[in-house]
């Protein structure tokens, strides 16, 4: 049998931009996280935005030690995010690890392999989101243990955010965190002290909280911020995206342009 000749075909219009011509976001996802890629994918509005993901190993259960160990792995994870393609922002996808490692150090570790790229994480993004919503006093709901929740409490307090109440569900693995029903975050918030609160923050990238943001906002009459929503919002805007994205709460429902100062940070 004779093999056919292989014909070389060149598109008459030449090459065009790959997906994400306007804004390209890189995501460093925990090896154990079963929600963040799904959530980010749902929030991508159209093919003008590109999302590119890699994984970083997290040992279990979730402890200060296992989260702190991620710091040494961040540079290599950043280096394999589409290394030959422009990225406008990179998200390190862990709220608690960012509070422990430190948001400035996370940025430096990513930029050690991707110089010049803008960097965010859910902890830093949550603070920026709450500032954008003029929220200084919050209701905090987490799926973590009491000890892990304390790390988030201290981070917010250090950044000038007052905690009206704090509720946690007591889990120490992403698998179990991902099994908490979305409605549980509604119930936990509705049963929490909310008097004087400006917003609700639901922590952790592995939760099912994204899809109930609008519903929860309707119930409590307050803006609701989640780890994945905030991280995506902040990365998108660092990357030059300014259009609203419907279906994910007040934070994303209208154009929220970054100030010149925020864009430069």
Run of helices and strands: EHEHHEHHEHEHEHHEHEHH
Taking all residues together, what is the mean pLDDT? 95
- Tell me the strand order in the biggest sheet: 2-1-3-4
Number of helices: 12
- Globally, the shape reads globular
What is the strand content? 15-25%
User: How many beta-strand segments?
Assistant: 8
**N/C terminus separation:** 63 Å
Work out the helicity level.
25-40%
* Class based on secondary structure composition and strand pairing: alpha/beta
Radius of gyration of CA atoms, rounded to a whole number: 19 Å
Return residue spans where pLDDT drops below 50 for at least 5 consecutive residues.
Answer: 259-265
Quick one: biggest sheet?
4 strands, parallel
Description of the structure:
The protein is α/β, with parallel strands linked by helices. The chain is 37% helix and 17% strand. Strand 5, helix 7 and strand 6 form a beta-alpha-beta unit. It is globular, with a radius of gyration of 19 Å. The model is unreliable at 259-265 (pLDDT under 50).
Structure summarized in a few sentences:
With 265 residues, this protein is α/β, with parallel strands linked by helices. Helices cover 37% and strands 17% of the residues.
Layout of SSEs?
Elements: E1 23-30, H1 36-43, E2 49-56, H2 64-68, H3 74-79, E3 89-93, H4 95-101, H5 103-111, E4 118-120, H6 122-132, E5 137-142, H7 146-158, E6 162-168, H8 174-177, H9 182-190, E7 199-202, H10 213-220, E8 224-226, H11 227-238, H12 260-264
Parallel strand pairs: 1-2, 1-3, 3-4, 5-6, 5-7, 7-8
